[in-house]
Design goal:
The complex is a heterodimer of chains A (527) and B (444). With 527 residues, chain A is mainly beta. Chain A contains six helices and 38 strands. Chain A has three domains: 161 residues, Sandwich (Jelly Rolls), CATH 2.60.120; 135 residues, Jelly Rolls; 148 residues, no CATH class. Chain B is mainly beta and 444 residues long. Helix content of chain B is 10%, strand content 57%. Chain B has a 14-stranded antiparallel β-barrel. Chain B has a two-stranded antiparallel sheet with strand order 2-3. In chain B, strand 7 and strand 8 form a beta hairpin. The longest helix of chain B is centred in the first third of the chain and has 10 residues. Chain B is elongated. Chains A and B meet through helix 1, strand 1, strand 2, helix 2 and strand 30 of A and helix 1, strand 2, strand 3, strand 16 and helix 6 of B.
Chain lengths: 527, 444
């Protein structure tokens, strides 16, 4: 059937129109301009951080943060011993026993005796001088020139007794130059030094220097005499030695913890090079709890609860040597274990000294210019024990970097995954409080109480970790909470540690024990 | 910038084709543009032809995915929505895309000789991608924790200008034609078949990302650089300039013959794009990523936390993601081969108005298996200026292709529309494949 003419025109228009339309639909570029994803829910997962910490690192870090005198000793078997030491108290003998203080000795006769300057109860038998000088002063009231020699027979150098010749002009004062005495040796049996002089007029007449016929006209002055060695008898003398405080920082916490440290001990070491008997008297020996409560350390390690006689080098064969005296206070001879269960935070001690407390007159003693008594007090803790909810708190500065500026509009929720791989025999509960710049708490990681996040590693009969235990904790968080947390500037970590089996058995902490803490994040976007 | 390459890929994904199959056009030798499938074709009794713009598109996607499965309109915006598309994907998917835009062509008959020349812009692309890639983009990596996700995309995409000049001659009932084509490459992206591994594994531990790549691709004037200076991963795309000539060049040949066995029976054969290879030299680079990359988040040495000012600082650690893929760029020339195509056909004029035709199509792409198709068609020309036709064809994708053509010849103008698959020709956005051809010419 022929197609009418009007249809011809229609067809002529229709086909190009169809072509253009179909091509337009296929190729319209604007379809792909500003192309965006349609709203949909997606979930992305990525890791946040990993950290591995050995117990050696952990304890070293804690110690470095606090006290300078703490030492962590890694024993051969990997166990660790923590030392808290106080300042070493040093007492040179010269601080307590002072000799030859100096001064002028008037010679009232041609032979005069003068006592050697020495502490009470000390008799000097021999003194080796290493410095200082003496001087002679003469008031010549005669009208003649007087010549003479001053002798100190007990003071000799290289076997030659001291002798000082002088010439004093008539009616003038004579002052000798300073006469060095280093190298001279003084000897005495009774702390008495003899001075003798011989003075003559030109006529050969022997004279005696007297002023007004009564006052001594000749003086011997000692100035800054120093000795390198003293020998003699030391009698009874009482004097203070030291007082010090040691901080026990592993217990610096606000939280309670039923901590039982196995075999805590204190070692008191006296290093003594004083050459005469010295007795230590313990005046004060107590621990202090955080609340200020005093815990008196009671021990049988001292004689009569307070006395310890220091070993000392003996005359004549041990001159220059140092002798040591160690006093061990442990759970066998003291209440220290009980004290440590109460988590003391300070140890305070005070020690005095007594020389020749037994007043033995037969003992010949000595001291040198370097004789010293050192007293060190050390608290030793083998890191072996048990704990139940032993608390520690640490504040970390936080910077979430790019996470803090993420646009969370499209986020529906997040879920943190905390993984611990624990090779220590300690379980841990954790709570983190997030703080803003001003220190205000803006949120916490968990609602309410701390959550258990780390199960202890399995332990053997000796309490040593034998493997690693993995613990996973999922921490869901609303986007509102996430927004608050990622703006935090500080995190206050409150941790509570419990040793294996609920803290019922002692465990050993080895230096090589380590824990790995890892965290990942899932972010779910809104649909 | 991140998504700029995505529309192109997804457009290819949405439009579906098989091979540049133009069997319907091959059955219409009197249409001027049919000379593109056989250089021996020339409209009967015409002396001078001006070929105006013509367009052909042949695209397919494995499975049943359509444009509308991916793109949704929201006012003036087009939104990507994979939620339906993912369900329609196979574990491995392929997109085929062949486009030809003929800008202008000329034909001149001089006695038994016919001369022809023309220009076309062509695009050829094959894209293979695993279902897991859009799944990962759409759902995030969390649903695939503990799974190795393949994200390697394989592509061979190239675009070129084709300048052609041809000659045919009648030898009695036989016409033989040949055409020389100068190929001028515009842009290309070709993944390296020997290095196409890219996987992402999200570790169930704390979601550490473990990426492994042994992935390489050649690019000319598409990808210029990977910017890893900022946070993330940014592809820098070169501006594809539609220069008519470039230093990316090649030569291809078309050969064809047409034999009018009788007044009613006609046979024809053609070989197209024979030997066509483009050597890419301009902005030609090889990008290679190789290695295993683990992103484990920030690593704080335990001692540092305790000793270095008691601080947890996440700053500056995240940018380690920048260098995960670490593509190394090496200037390197490469080549791409044009798909070689062949047609065999025969037609028989039942009456003056009815013609029956059968055809065979063969195509071979470099490094790929050959594909083929057969067809049977009928053509009705009720009047001199109108031609309508239908065709059934069978190819490796489908046994249910019903083709269609409409040609109008009002005066000297020739306008046509043809498709090997009528059902999708007018519903590109809702069909898993499309095949269409249209063009205009003036014949004198």
């Amino acid at each position: 059937m022929p197609i009418p003419m009007r249809h011809h025109r229609f067809l002529r228009l229709l086909v190009p129109a169809l072509i253009v339309c179909s091509l337009y639909a296929a190729c319209k570029k604007s379809d792909f301009e500003n192309l965006e994803f349609a709203d949909h829910a997606a979930e992305f997962a990525f890791p946040l951080f990993t950290t591995t910490l050995t117990l050696e690192d952990l304890l070293a870090g804690v110690l470095n943060d606090s006290l300078s005198n703490d030492t962590l000793l890694i024993n051969d078997d990997g166990t660790m011993t923590l030392f808290y030491t106080g300042d070493v108290a040093q007492k040179p003998a010269t601080d307590i026993f002072k000799f030859f203080q100096g001064g002028a000795f008037p010679l009232s006769d041609t032979v005069s005796m003068s006592p050697i300057q020495a502490p009470d109860g000390v008799i000097i038998y021999k003194a080796v001088l290493k410095g200082g000088n003496i001087a002679v002063s003469i008031f010549n009231t005669f009208n003649d020139t007087i010549t003479g020699v001053l002798h100190i027979p007990q003071m000799a150098k290289d076997g030659v007794p001291f002798a000082f010749p002088f010439v004093a002009l008539p009616n003038e004062n004579f002052v000798s130059p300073a006469i060095p005495v280093d190298g001279y040796i003084l000897t005495s049996t009774d702390n008495i030094l003899q001075f003798r002089y011989e003075a003559y007029k030109p006529s050969g007449e022997r004279v005696k220097f007297l002023i007004g016929g009564f006052f001594p006209g000749i003086y011997v002055g000692f100035n800054q005499l120093e000795f390198s060695y003293l020998e003699g008898y030391w009698g009874y003398s009482y004097y203070p030695l030291t007082r010090d405080t040691i901080d026990i920082d592993i217990n610096q916490t606000n939280l309670d913890g039923n901590v039982k440290i196995k075999n805590p001990r204190i070692i008191m070491r006296i290093s003594n090079s004083w050459g005469f008997p010295t007795r230590g008297v313990i005046k004060y020996l107590s621990f202090i709890r955080q609340n200020g409560e005093e815990l008196k350390l009671e021990t049988t390690a001292f004689v009569n609860d307070s006395i310890v006689d220091f070993n000392y080098p003996t005359f004549p064969n041990e001159i220059g040597q140092t002798k040591y005296t160690d006093v061990y206070l442990d759970e066998t001879n003291s209440n220290i274990a009980e004290i440590f269960n109460a988590q003391p935070t300070q140890f305070i001690y005070e020690v005095n000294g007594i020389s020749n407390a037994l007043l033995d007159p037969t003992i010949i003693g000595f001291m040198t210019d370097s004789s010293i008594i050192k007293l060190s007090m050390r608290v030793e803790l083998d890191l072996e024990g048990s704990a139940q909810n032993f608390g520690a708190e640490q504040t970390l500065d936080l910077n979430f970097g790019d996470y803090s500026s993420i646009d969370s509009f499209d986020i529906e929720n997040v879920e943190f995954k905390l993984v611990t791989e624990n090779g220590t025999p300690i379980s841990t509960s954790l709570q983190i409080f997030f703080e803003d710049e001003a220190g205000n708490t803006i949120d916490s990681l968990f609602a309410g109480a701390p959550r258990f996040i780390m199960q202890s590693a399995p332990v053997n009969a000796e309490g040593v970790a034998t493997g690693s235990t993995r613990t996973e904790t999922l921490i869901p968080m609303s986007v509102e909470q996430f927004d608050r947390v990622r703006l935090a500037k500080r995190a206050v970590l409150q941790t509570a540690f419990t040793t294996a089996d609920g803290g019922s058995i002692p465990v050993k902490l080895l230096a090589t024990n380590q824990v790995t803490v890892k965290m990942g994040l899932k972010v779910k976007t809104r649909s | 910038m991140k998504y700029r390459i995505l529309p192109a890929i997804l457009m290819v994904t949405a439009l579906k084709l098989e091979a540049q199959q133009e069997m319907m056009l091959n059955s219409l030798p009197d249409l001027w543009h049919s000379t593109t499938v056989n250089p021996a074709y020339f409209p009967k009794d015409k002396h001078f032809v001006i070929g105006l713009p013509g367009y052909s598109l042949d695209a397919a996607h494995t499975g049943s995915l359509t444009y509308n499965d991916i793109f949704i309109k929201d006012g003036d915006r087009t939104l990507l929505n994979f939620s339906k598309a993912i369900g329609a994907l196979d574990p491995q998917n392929e997109v085929f895309f062949e486009q030809r835009i003929e800008t202008v062509s000329l034909g001149l008959a001089l006695g038994k000789w016919r001369l022809q020349a023309g220009h076309a812009n062509r695009f050829s692309g094959v894209l293979n991608y695993p279902k897991s890639l859009p799944e990962l983009i759409w759902n995030g990596n969390a649903p695939y924790i503990g799974q190795v996700v393949d994200v390697a995309l394989q592509a061979k995409l190239f675009n070129w200008n084709e300048w052609s000049a041809g000659l045919s001659r009648e030898f009695g009932r036989l016409t033989i034609g040949a055409r020389l084509k100068y190929l001028s490459g515009t842009s290309a992206l070709k993944t390296d078949d020997d290095h196409h591994l890219a996987t992402i594994y999200t570790n169930p531990d704390i979601y550490q990302l473990e990426m492994e790549t042994d992935y390489g691709f050649h690019s000319s004037a598409i990808v210029s650089a990977f910017d890893t200076s900022g946070l993330g991963f940014d592809l820098q795309l070169a501006k594809v300039k539609g220069k008519p000539f470039s230093s990316n060049s090649g030569i291809a040949f078309d050969l064809g013959l047409q034999l009018r066995v009788t007044d009613k029976l006609s046979l024809s054969a053609s070989l197209l794009d024979w030997g066509g290879t483009i050597k890419w030299k301009e902005n030609a680079n090889y990008f290679r990523s190789q290695g295993k990359y683990n992103y484990e988040g920030v690593s704080f040495p335990g001692g540092d936390i305790l000793n270095s000012g008691d601080s947890l600082d996440f700053e500056s650690k995240l940018d380690t993601l920048n260098d995960i893929f670490n593509f190394k760029k090496t200037p390197e020339e490469f080549s791409t081969r044009l798909p070689e195509r062949a047609y065999l056909s025969g037609s028989f004029a039942l009456t003056e108005k009815w013609t029956l035709s059968v055809g065979y199509f063969y195509m071979k792409k470099a490094d790929r298996q050959a594909t083929s198709a057969v067809s049977a068609s009928v053509r009705w020309q009720p009047v001199r200026w109108l031609s309508l036709g239908g065709m059934y064809s069978l190819n490796e994708r489908s046994a249910a292709n019903l083709g269609f053509h409409l040609a109008l010849k009002p005066g000297p103008v020739q306008v046509y529309f043809a498709s090997d698959n009528l059902l999708n020709a007018f519903s590109i956005k809702s069909s898993p494949a499309v095949n269409l051809r249209a063009g205009v010419a003036v014949l004198l």
